[in-house]
Amino acid sequence: MGLFSKLRNTLGGGDQVADDVQAEMQFHLEQTAADLMASGMAPAEARREARRRFGAVTRLQDEARDADMIQWLEGWVRDLRLAARSLRRRPGMTVTAVASLAIGLGATAAIFTIVDAVLLKPLPLPEPERLVVIREFRNGQGAGGNPQRLKDWAAMVPAFQATTGFYEETLIRRGARGPEKVSVLRTFGQFLAVLGVPPTEGRPFTPAEETQGAPVAVLSHRFWSTRLNADPAILGKTLALNSATLTVIGVLPPSVQYPEELEVITPATPEMQKTSRRAGFLAGLSRLKPSVTLAEAQGQVNTVAAALAAQYPDTDKNRSARLVPFIEDQVEDARPALLLLLATVASVLLIACVNVSGLLLARGAERNRESSIRVSLGAGRGSLIRLQLAESLMLALMGGTLGIALALVGVDALKALLPAGTLHRLESAAVDARVVGFMAGLVLISALVAGLAPALRLSRVQLSAGRVTKTRSSRHLRTALVVGQVMLSTVLVVGSALLARSLFEMKAAPLGFNPQRLTIVEIDFPWDTEKVRLDQFTQQALDAFRAIPGVSAASVTDRLPTQGGSQSGPILVAGRTLPPELAERSVSMRGASPEYLATIGATLKAGQWLTPRAPNGPREAIVNETLARLYFPDGRVLGSEIAFQRGGKAVPYRIVGIMGDLRQSLTNREPAAEAFLPMSDVFWPMLRFALRSDNSNLARPIREVVAQFSPDTIIDKISTMDAELDKAASSPSVITYLLAGFAAVALLLAAIGLFGIIAGEVAERTKEIGIRLALGAEPARVQRQVLRRGLQVAAIGLAGGLVAALATSRLLESMLYGVTSRDGVSLAATVLVLLVVAAFASWIPARRASRVDPTVALRSE
Amino acid sequence: MASGRADSLQGALSLLVLKTLALGEMHGYAITQHIQRASQEALRVEEGSLYPALHRMEQTGWIQSQWKLTETNRRARFYSLTDEGRRQLAAEEQNWARLTSAVAQVLAWS
């Protein structure tokens, strides 16, 4: 009876079935009694006799009540017990199968835990799906948001319930333990209304406070509890940050920690509220009205953007905005790598399941005999399949339990391995009820996948014969499974070979400077620091650093190489109109002290380095090769003038030198056009000092000298360039190592699978091999034959895998550096690795085959 | 086989039931009665075997059942052959013939 009718019997009243059986039995009893009475028996005795003859009535009812769900479940329990007993009899197979599944399930659970925490779990904000990030573009390039435009959107886009823009800055608070940095969020519009979370203590900002930029603050729960010792009387107290004094009016609940480092929220100052439409520095966030779709809202934004472009042609032309769901915006960078890892572990799990399938099939002969006996004893085919599935379920349950343990360890290891701060919400990842639930589902699926092939085979058991020979189809099925395993692991090996090559390329690509013996010091001043103060501090610091014994050179810049860009914008070339694609292209504008480029070991290609600028002297700049190539196709670079737009005014610079490109980013290969100006011409309060020194342990002397001339200054970081490069490369490295590790596990499992069928074939053919050896066949030849068979199977899987890899590796493209997804070296390496592993896996049984003792072999059977 | 049990013969019970039902629709009790009579009391079908067998055969699709009134106006479950059951009967009859003739030949060997 099918599961469906079982369910119907249970749900629609299993009593119906029991009643039917009851009635049929009753009828039978009464007929028997009636006949007995007819032959002259007394009624009472006849009934007793009838019941006696009907001795097995209860058993009968049991049998018929197989239709009952409870009975069905009891059957499962019985089968699980049987399965457990049968597994205990084969500890070798059981351990192999459980270990395979535990690795597959554990790895999948661990990665799922991370994926769930980072990508899937809803944010702890009310109706987070209604939050959208407003991404602005100008001429198709990303641009910052503007307070005035955000205000217009808030008023003109009907789909927006509340809209805000904000920027973060670091201010200094003079606390009891000396100065400390505080991360402050300056908001425009209705920040708290967009989050949808009112403060738990105190009150939210009033509309007047928000629009006028009142000096009031709402604190994050973390800041209040850790930095202010959870002061119960905090409301109404003031917080002195730099030159500002803010009155605390509220504390947020602990669940709200967005942005992650959020400590203090305050409306942007009145001057900032009046910023011109030209500037762009805000992150925009909006809460949609309930039941408004993203597409509707986007349509309205497009309409409003067009209206604003018509109204403010100077500033709002060629601007567009795209609404992105908040959660997507948060996880965009992490998504490809995480999904790649998830797909990888899922493949490992699939290979593990297939391995277990192979192991179960390998005992086909034995199982067939047992099954035939069961069938002739009256077992239905369904119950045979059920028993087989019970066995794989048992294996999957054990594997899953172990897997959870592995996942517990694995998640902690992953959290330690993955570089801090790169994955949003990574900290919250933990094996919880969701993960266990996911695991339970996975166990069921694995049991089905692993048990499917053996169960299907069972359904074809020959009933008539008590003894069943191992059929050809069984071997074909197992071979097909191994081919599939080899295919999948080929795909994984290709993937990790590509990533490894890419990592190598990334590390091998020229940096454009010499990171060795370079110590870096990072000091962030608040945005409202005056330029004079910055310049004064810079000069004092450089002098003090140069005086430290062992320091041969000290210099300053606005952003170190490989750490991204700082300020950028389009440039003009004197005496020439640039083609449109260059006129709108952004050029990185960097500031540096004159000796900076020489200190970090950049290469001068032509002209000269920057020199200290004399008061009212000419403005000079150095450009990199990319800029020279793009903007000066005629090669007349030196002496030409370029101009930067600053404050609506073009400021011209004469090019005095061409330098080799510096890597702006480790992971992005795109060369950026860059120009270096004297640091004194650039306003950028995040100072980056680069010191050349044989002594890498300069942290103490650096802190001491800074404390001497500027005791209030907080040094954000002292490190070496080498260490920073390692850190920048750690994210792709970890992903590469993880993928390579999983690919290795997959390969190992596939090798076990291959070994399994080849060894099985050798065992089956022992007699034949024995005869051949007895007739004078060379052992080496026998060995070669077995080896060839193993390599054949592997080669089919390998070929299929390469095709599949070529089809899928394009998905990796965005994560590759310096190699294409069709990289020949990676493919060749994969073929080599696969063949070596396959050769080893079949060599063991091949050697055994060549050592068959003819006399023993012929005597067997 | 003076007083054998039909169900002690592997596979024989279903053959007997199919053959019996080939005569027409019948309830379980009637089936036991018929087998008993037809074998001249040599074969007796245990109820504990008959009903599970009927149940299984119905699931397999060889027979079907229906609740009806008997001549004495009692409700009873009547079983009848399906087309598949008829085919199965033919196959089993052939098998049986082969088996018995084979056994006979073995016994005749002397």
Descriptive overview:
The complex is a heterodimer of chains A (861) and B (110). Chain A has 861 residues and is α+β, with helices and mostly antiparallel strands. In chain A, strands 1, 2, 3, 4, 5, 6, 7, 8, 9, 10 and 11 form an eleven-stranded mixed sheet that branches. Chain B has 110 residues and is α+β, with helices and mostly antiparallel strands. Chain B has a single domain, classed as Arc Repressor Mutant, subunit A (Orthogonal Bundle), CATH 1.10.10.10. In chain B, 55% of the residues lie in helices and 18% in strands. Chain B is built from four helices and five strands. Chain B has helices at residues 12-21, 28-38, 47-60, 83-108; strands at residues 4-5, 26-27, 43-44, 63-69, 75-81. In chain B, strands 2-5-4 form a three-stranded antiparallel sheet. Chain B has a two-stranded parallel sheet with strand order 1-3. In chain B, strand 4 and strand 5 (75-81) form a beta hairpin. In chain B, helix 1 (12-21) packs across helix 4. The longest helix of chain B is centred in the last third of the chain and has 26 residues, at 83-108. The radius of gyration of chain B is 15 Å and the shape is globular. The A-B interface holds A 1, 20-21, 23-25, 27-28, 30-32, 53-57, 59-60, 63-64, 376, 378, 380 and B 10, 27-29, 46-49, 51-52, 55-56, 59, 67, 74-77.
Write a concise keyword list for the protein shown above.
heterodimer; A: 861 residues; alpha+beta; 4 domains; eleven-stranded mixed sheet; eight-stranded mixed sheet; 29 helices; globular; B: 110 residues; Arc Repressor Mutant, subunit A; three-stranded antiparallel sheet; two-stranded parallel sheet; 55% helix
What is the fold's blueprint, element by element?
The complex is a heterodimer of chains A (861) and B (110).
Chain A: H1 3-11, H2 15-38, H3 43-53, H4 57-64, H5 69-88, H6 91-120, E1 131-138, E2 141-143, H7 147-156, E3 160-175, E4 178-189, H8 191-195, E5 201-202, H9 207-212, E6 216-219, H10 221-227, E7 238-241, E8 244-251, E9 264-267, H11 270-273, E10 283-288, H12 294-311, H13 313-316, E11 319-325, H14 326-331, H15 335-362, H16 364-376, H17 381-417, H18 433-458, H19 472-508, E12 518-524, H20 531-547, E13 551-557, E14 567-569, E15 571-573, H21 580-583, E16 587-592, H22 596-599, E17 604-607, E18 620-624, H23 625-631, E19 641-646, E20 649-659, E21 674-678, E22 686-693, H24 699-709, E23 717-720, H25 721-764, H26 766-774, H27 779-808, H28 824-850, H29 854-859
Parallel strand pairs in A: 4-9, 6-8, 16-21, 18-20
Antiparallel strand pairs in A: 1-2, 1-10, 1-11, 3-4, 3-10, 5-8, 6-9, 7-8, 12-22, 12-23, 13-22, 14-16, 15-19, 17-20, 18-21, 19-20
Helix pairs in contact in A: 2-3, 5-17, 6-15, 6-17, 6-18, 7-12, 15-18, 15-19, 15-25, 17-18, 19-25, 19-27, 19-28, 20-24, 25-27, 25-28, 27-28
Chain B: E1 4-5, H1 12-21, E2 26-27, H2 28-38, E3 43-44, H3 47-60, E4 63-69, E5 75-81, H4 83-108
Parallel strand pairs in B: 1-3
Antiparallel strand pairs in B: 2-5, 4-5
Helix pairs in contact in B: 1-4
